[in-house]
Structure prediction request, 395 residues.
Amino acid sequence: MNLLKAPPASVRRTPTVLIRGTGLLGTSIGLGLRADGHEVLLSDPSATAESIAADIGAGRILDAVDQADTGPGGPAVPEIVIVAAPPEATAAEVSAALLRFPDAVVLDIASTKAEILQLLLAQVRDEDAALTEADLRRYVGTHPMAGREKSGPVAARGELFTSMPWVVCPAVDPATGVQLSAPEAVAWAEEVGRRLGATVHHMDPARHDESVALISHLPQIAASLVASRLQQAPTSALALAGNGLRDVTRIAASDPGLWVQILSSNAAPVVEILYGLRQDVERLISTLEDPRAPGRQADIAQLIAEGNSGVARVPGKHGAPPQSFAVLTVIVDDRPGQIAAVLNDVARVGVNVEDMRMEHSAGHQVGMVELSVLPGRRDELAAAMTDLGWKVVLS
Ligand SMILES: NC(=O)c1ccc[n+]([C@@H]2O[C@H](COP(=O)([O-])OP(=O)(O)OC[C@H]3O[C@@H](n4cnc5c(N)ncnc54)[C@H](O)[C@@H]3O)[C@@H](O)[C@H]2O)c1
Ligand SMILES: O=C(O)C(=O)C[C@]1(C(=O)O)C=C[C@@H](O)C=C1
Prediction:
């Protein structure tokens, strides 16, 4: 069915979805939409990626019979196509999907948005290309602000998007600001995000790219730069690594191939931010070259305080105001089933866990399950867990 002529997205329907590109993101979306009752078709140039995605339950492979498109009553025809390909392949895949499935709404989820739209608009303007402005009515760019430092379908998680932002960037004509995506297509782009449990935000492609330069691309660069300092570090120094290093470097394990594409397509706003960072680093270097000279201690304190005020502005879950959670740590034996047992007992007490982290104590057969809860519930949970026989540490 053509979703631009169908009942609105808010009406409960489960359109058939084709996912083109079944890596980490495509497979995670497939798992999430399958759990929501959608029929999901999968397609990837890599037969391995496609069949792993199908094996772990993200959908079924778009096969030769589907591709023959035998019309009504025949094999499934996608009503929504989600392009989850690498950024540099995205515009071509979006364009191919718009042409091949002339009734489908086509979304992409690439990490940058302006360049993809530019490439699509260039095709529309190119008289030799088949794509028209009417086709673009069915296209909407989106960007799930959720991912992992791992790639490929094996790393996929159906719950990846729960409570995370899902940015919807309707296509706009950059010269006039006129929206090119049809409102019905935009409504389906939002609905897909909501059905995956995400929180929907709207932004035009250029503002989106400026925003992610700061909140996504800068953190990746910072993590990579810090972690690259570790390459020559003595093993004895690395053995001392605590949570500080782990918190700052998790995403340094991200795929270089993906990040070459992301940073290249958003270089200008990233460079602007790096100029500011360079100034701060230079200021800190000269301060620390003589840290006891007059005014220098205040300078160091100011730099750390500026970080305090920046981090205090990072919102909590569902885009809620910044919230700091209270943490309690439950010490468990390092054996199977312990985390499940802890969470079971927390559920019995009736306290919602906002975040959880597992740490192992080097050289000891114990693990530490760190539970973040609303500050007002921490003491109650600690008391109840202690009564249930757990060893609880408050931090
Ligand atoms: N990784 C993240 O954290 C994250 C988060 C949000 C958005 N994204 C975006 O999602 C997209 C996919 O990223 P990923 O992390 O799933 O990467 P991935 O490497 O895990 O998967 C990419 C998949 O695309 C396939 N592919 C390659 N060329 C293709 C083509 N021409 N057409 C269709 N598929 C093709 C690959 O075979 C692979 O299976 C990227 O555009 C990325 O910017 C990634
Ligand atoms: O959490 C991670 O591992 C991510 O890589 C997520 C992250 C991000 O910066 O938030 C990375 C790039 C994507 O475009 C979107 C999400």
Remarks:
- The chain has three domains: 17-203, 211-305, 326-394.
- The pocket of prephenic acid (ligand 2) is lined by residues 111, 145-149, 216, 251, 254 (CB under 6 Å).
- The domain at 17-203 is CATH 3.40.50.720 (Rossmann fold).
- The mean pLDDT is 93.
